[in-house]
Amino acid sequence: MSPKIPSKPSVPRRVAEREVRLFARGVRHGKVRKEFWLDPAQLRAAQTELGAATEREAVELALDLVNFRRELLRGVAKLGKVRLSRID
User: Apex CA 81: angle with CA 77 and CA 86, to 5°?
Assistant: First the structure.
């Protein structure tokens, strides 16, 4: 049974079919396609360490960790400006 194609009169049928196929393979909204040459040993190590099911998931998790680290550093910098007083 083929997937149900949304009925949008302004969207050509071939475009609607493509959207259904893309969604069936994974969410790609807001993402860009890139191609990299990566060290397989490093990729396997990252995948294992992060508990990722796939290499792609390992790369995405690693990128998320980089962004999280930046957020943490910003928070620490802001906390460094806060004056604390001793509570007795």
Answer: 120
pLDDT in tens, 11-34: 555 555 555 444 445 567 788 888
Tokens of 29: 């909204």
What is the chain's Cα-based Rg? 22
Q: How many residues does the chain have?
A: 88
Helical pair 55-80 and 40-50, crossing angle rounded to 10 deg: 70
DSSP 10-69: TS-HHHHHHHHHHHHH---TT---------HHHHHHHHHHHT-SSHHHHHHHHHHHHHHH
Question: What distance in Å separates the CA atoms of residue 17 and residue 14, rounded to the nearest whole number?
Answer: 5
Reported confidence tier of residue 81, pLDDT bands at 50, 70, 90: confident
Question: Distance between CA 20 and CA 2 in Å, rounded?
Answer: 10
